[in-house]
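TA notes, week 10

Several of you asked for a full example with nothing omitted. So below is the full record: structure tokens for the whole chain, then the designed sequence directly under it. When grading your own attempts, check the secondary structure regions first.
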């Protein structure tokens, strides 16, 4: 089990989803995650403290896997992310950030973290220098990319736990079926 900070510390630098990290046995971050998620199911994957309630929020591997697959599918189908495309993400450390990071890897993209507390000039420079076409944002960080000179797509992503996340996933899957 990981905390949000421990898991994100592993992926602090921009890296490709097809880079190999596990001692030469040709596994990617995406394949390692999918294998662990399938094996661990309802075990706790990440814990994040809820400051307001002074208690931990927990997401299981099954929930994490489900949300990662939904977002990865959206990245590929709705935002046309291809293998090797740079996808920036500008969020505070949270479940949303972990889901976004893993979804980028599963979609085959290259993860480029943006710190929402950095000056606009730095964020703009990173987006432009990486030739990113998409930035994944949280509703609280949406205004950070307001003044980017380059045309860029924005995806606002907010994870909802419990039944609402399940219902969102179900509605999205039904919509996909209706479009076939």
């Amino acid at each position: 089990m990981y905390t949000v900070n421990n898991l994100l510390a592993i992926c602090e630098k921009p890296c490709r989803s097809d880079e190999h990290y596990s001692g030469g046995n040709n596994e990617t971050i995406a394949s390692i995650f999918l294998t662990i998620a399938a094996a661990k199911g309802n075990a706790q994957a990440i814990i994040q403290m809820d400051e307001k309630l002074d208690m931990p929020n927990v997401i299981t591997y099954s929930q994490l896997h489900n949300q990662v697959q939904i977002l990865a599918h959206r990245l590929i189908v709705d935002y046309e992310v291809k293998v090797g495309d740079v996808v920036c993400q500008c969020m505070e450390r949270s479940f949303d950030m972990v889901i976004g990071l893993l979804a980028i890897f599963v979609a085959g993209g290259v993860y480029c973290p943006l710190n929402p507390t950095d000056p606009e000039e730095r964020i703009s420079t990173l987006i432009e220098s990486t030739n990113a076409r998409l930035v994944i944002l949280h509703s609280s960080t949406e205004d950070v990319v307001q003044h980017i000179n380059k045309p860029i797509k924005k995806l606002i992503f907010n994870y909802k736990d419990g039944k609402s996340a399940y219902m969102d996933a179900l509605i999205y899957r039904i919509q996909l079926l209706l479009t076939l």
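The radius of gyration is 16 Å. Use that as a sanity check on your answer.
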